[in-house]
Amino acid sequence: MSADNAICSAIIIDQQKVDRVNKTLPPAEETKEMATLFKALADPTRLRIVQSLLLEELCVCDLSTIVKVSISAISHQLRLLRTMRIVKYRKQGKQVYYSLNDEHITQLIRTATEHVRE
Amino acid sequence: MSADNAICSAIIIDQQKVDRVNKTLPPAEETKEMATLFKALADPTRLRIVQSLLLEELCVCDLSTIVKVSISAISHQLRLLRTMRIVKYRKQGKQVYYSLNDEHITQLIRTATEHVRE
DNA sequence: TATACATTTGATCAGTTATTCAATTATTAT
DNA sequence: ATAATAATTGAATAACTGATCAAATGTATA
Fold it and tell me: In angstroms, how far is D9 C1' from B73 CA?
């Protein structure tokens, strides 16, 4: 029987290290927000949308064509990106044009691209 | 009845734009790989592990204490990060010490931190 | 005002994921 | 050898997620 359920049983291997890391880590709440940001880019459909909007402002219909998923699916994902303020939109006649709203997104995608291309 | 199921019905709003974007977008396969990378950082537990390893090389037991989840849960997540070559490990006695294996991860976390702090 | 088009929305369903639990492996010390 | 500790693993389960379908909003044009 091991101490699987416990949080590392009663034993800590290196207390000083643990203290040091605990002192330096950002608040857990911030980590959660960051995870949420990464999650926004963690789906191929959403990431493809963002990659497209990196190039051009696009309406929902054209996004659907480019990303090759249904308009409904695109719209659902756009809502999520909207809620997270990753994209913004403007209405023009019947169309709704989406574009990127955040410069950090560009940098994240650039770094991730480097990663997969190396 | 709308054209929900179709891929943007038969109509494209701006064919030139669509062509331009399609020509410039990276291969879909690359987008998938990038999404997988983001997914690795899209969970609070995993992100917390990575943030900790950014500061110090740590054994599983101490990671468990710091991240405040069971050793088993930590180990499962470490396996995923190992598979993705985001972390590496070395054995020393009964302990297994994990550390970061990828410089891009540092940059991704730095950018995401800026994002949530702004 | 009808009609068509572009988009949004809510419900549902299948597939995925993170944790827990129990058992196992590996290493060290007695 | 035996016991104890550190870590890994596989199965089971509950929660989450992304796509589809059907229906409902706008918005513009005939």
Answer: 11
ipTM: 0.93
Q: Which domains does chain A have, with CATH numbers?
A: 26-117 (1.10.10.10)
The answer to whether the Cβ–Cβ distance between A12 and B108 falls below 8 Å is: no
Tokens 């800026």 sit on residue? B114
Which helix (H) or strand (E) segment holds residue B59: the answer is strand B58-59
Task: Name B76's Cβ contacts closer than 8 Å, sequence gap at least 6.
Answer: none
Give me the pLDDT at residue A11, please.
73
Among B25, B32, B65, the residue to mutate for chain A (most A Cβ within 10 A): B65
Percent of chain A predicted with pLDDT > 70: 92
User: Which has the closest alpha carbon to B58: A20, A115, A62, A10?
Assistant: A20
Number of Cβ atoms within 10 Å of the Cβ of B44: 19
Q: What does the pLDDT average to over B39-47?
A: 98
Within an 8 Å CB–CB cutoff, is residue B38 touching chain A? yes
CB A95 within 8 A of CB A60: yes
Question: For residues A79 and A113, is the Cβ–Cβ distance under 8 A?
Answer: no
